[in-house]
Description:
The chain has helices at about 15-25, 50-65, 80-90, 95-110, 120-125, 130-145. The chain is rod-shaped. It contains 6 helices and no strands.
Amino acid sequence: MNTRTETDFTPVDQDLYAKAFQLLDPTPEPAAPAPVPFNCPAAPPVRLTGPVEKTLTDALAFLDTHGWARRTLIHPEGARCSIGALRAAAGARNAAYCDAGNLLLDEARRQHGKRWESIPSWNDSHTGAQVRSVWEAAIRRAHHKNI
């Protein structure tokens, strides 16, 4: 028997050999996230409510729940005037309470004239619809200012 040890084979490229086996038995790669369609709008950024907007919104919700009053801070049945609702919503005379009150009074002056010196005097001189209009506009301004 004649056994030949020398061959005319080209030496194997080890990297090519490894790639060939990888193609035959690939390891699964982590799945890539699904592509987002081009016409799909991105999620809007999360916006946090500022303390002034929150105080105004909570105060208006308080008025909606308990009622609105004139010429008294707290009505015996639980309704409140605008300043009473602000105090209930803020819980304390803190910065948000002061800024919300200033914004509310500024909006009252924009809608009903510059002569109003205080929230109670303005509140007592207007209808519920007029007062609500000022509250809603003040909330929109606080939202727009992100305060």
